Amino acid sequence: MWEYAPAPESRDIANLKPSYRMFLDGEFVEGGGEPLKTVNPATEEVLAEVSTASKSDVDKAVKAARRAYDRVWGRMPGAERAKYIFRIARMVAERSRELAVLESLDNGKPIKESRDVDVPTASAHFFYHAGWADKLDYAGLGPDPRPLGVAGQVIPWNFPLLMAAWKLAPALACGNTVVLKPAETTPLTALVLADIIQQADLPPGVVNILPGAGDVGAELVGHPDIDKVAFTGSTEVGKLIQCSVAGTGKKLTLELGGKAANVVFDDAPLDQAVEGIVNGIFFNQGHVCCAGSRLLVQESVADELLDKLHTRIATLRVGDPLDKNTDVGAINSREQLTKIAELVSSGEAEGAEKWVSPCPLPDKGFFFAPTVFAGVSQAMRIAREEIFGPVLSVLTFRTPDEAVAKANNTPYGLSAGIWTDKGSRILWMADRLRAGVVWANTFNRFDPTAPFGGYQESGFGREGGRQGLEAYLDV
Ligand code: NAP
Ligand code: MG
Fold first, then answer.
1. What pLDDT is recorded for position 3?
2. What Pfam family is a match, any one (predicted)?
């Protein structure tokens, strides 16, 4: 046996400042709200103080976005808009180390994920959408598609920079201006993105970034001069937003929770499936709306697969997010940690068999050991509710029809995975699974060219790809 030596990334690279201000009409200004303190969930230390928006700041930001839309951005030829968006894409790539370290500090995700997934994919979203800006007439959405106007966007804490990119890039490419609210616990990378946007010389008011809590989000989506609302977060808040915009004529897209089935057939290459299952549920500590949180395994291979899974999961290293050897970082907040622990106790109380990785956990910070529940039945809370943590629920099936019925037995419908050797079975299953994204023999792959979005309580509308443009255009 040998141990990994620590391989920490230097936190100096993050260029952390003691305080951050909001970005309004092209300037960094003090918000009128009570400043918030954002913490490092791996150590519980305060990282920085961040100013937040008041009601009147939201109004000022929407007015600035409206002016920028009317006077500049909404009239600018697509080829010109593209130049700005390309510049943002390049600058995100140039500052990728800084952004990755800052993201890991503020969010708790392992540096190898922020470095290899979050930041490069954020940059890729800007590159991809820059390419569309002058080709919207050819997107297959009808002749002469027009921008909608001002978009109000609210994002969660699980992929702070990446969600900002998912929201901003298509909005800007289509000629809209934006007011964006990052999540309360993870505002920092969005404000560095604001710095990039300022340096890219985007006209003032085209992008405004207002940190704050849920009330700032509610104020923004309820503002009468917003034309489009885009929200990613919980189904509960999504429903409130849907009620608040009903009857207003605002266009709405909602990207909410999920409880994805990852379905493994007996002919699947099991070792490869194990890697996909681990990536499906332990990537980003399981704080992923499309996480493969329900493993459906064919009964004949269930014991073998579970043994292999335990062996593999026991090797995952949980700890310092800035260590390049860390596989599973910190849970984003104490609140989320409490929620995970509560759902795990419900699983035990309802009679599922709990297995917990023997990995050591740090003494401070918010951490949760990778957990697997076997013997889960469909009525249990751990099979129905989104845990949003490193917890896998394992169910079994005998026939493909049963797999489909169980996979679709959920109020959600965001993603699903299929593991089998047979191409025909992949297509048969994909046709029947009610999920916006279906991965075959892989999981959690993200690409700006592929549309992403849900069915049922996972929301509606698509983000990414040609289809995602429609959410930001009057077609
Ligand atoms: P959330 O409460 O829905 O928060 C998402 C965003 O909406 C945050 O920026 C939040 O601000 C803001 N917000 C809260 N209340 C609002 C309101 N009434 N009107 C407008 N905006 C509002 O989600 P959460 O608290 O971060 O997480 C709760 C659960 O949501 C998780 O456990 C998970 O199940 C699910 N979730 C799903 C996704 C996803 O990608 N689909 C992402 C994150 C969470 P604050 O930051 O101040 O709360
Ligand atoms: Mg934080």
1. 84
2. Aldedh
pTM of the model: 0.97
Counting ligand 1 atoms within 8 A of each CB, the residue from 154, 188, 344, 458 with the most, and so the one to mutate, is 154
Name the residue type at position 386.
Answer: E
How many A from CA of 38 to the centre of ligand 2? Answer: 4
Given the candidates 1.10.287.1080, 3.40.605.10, 3.40.50.300, 1.10.1660.10, the CATH classification of the domain at 11-255+455-474 is: 3.40.605.10
Number of the ligand closest to the Cα of 214: 1
The continuous run of DSSP H or E covering 88 comes out as helix 78-94
Residue 255 bears catalytic tag? yes
Ligand 1 center to 268 CA (angstroms):
36
Is domain 261-440 annotated with CATH 3.40.309.10?
yes
Classified as helix, coil or strand, 463 is: strand
| Average pLDDT over every residue of 242-262 | 97
Tell me which residue has its CA closest to atom 35 in ligand 1: 234
One-character DSSP codes across 320-387: -TTBTT-SB---S-HHHHHHHHHHHHHHHHTTPEEEE------SSS-----EEEES--TTSHHHHS--
CATH 3.40.309.10 location in the chain: 261-440
Averaged pLDDT, 89-93: 98
Write the pLDDT tens digit of every residue in 303-355: 999 999 999 999 999 999 999 999 999 999 999 999 999 999 999 999 999 99
Q: What is the mean pLDDT of residues 397-404?
A: 98
CA of 212 to the centre of ligand 1 (A): 12
What is the rounded average pLDDT of the residues 189-216?
98
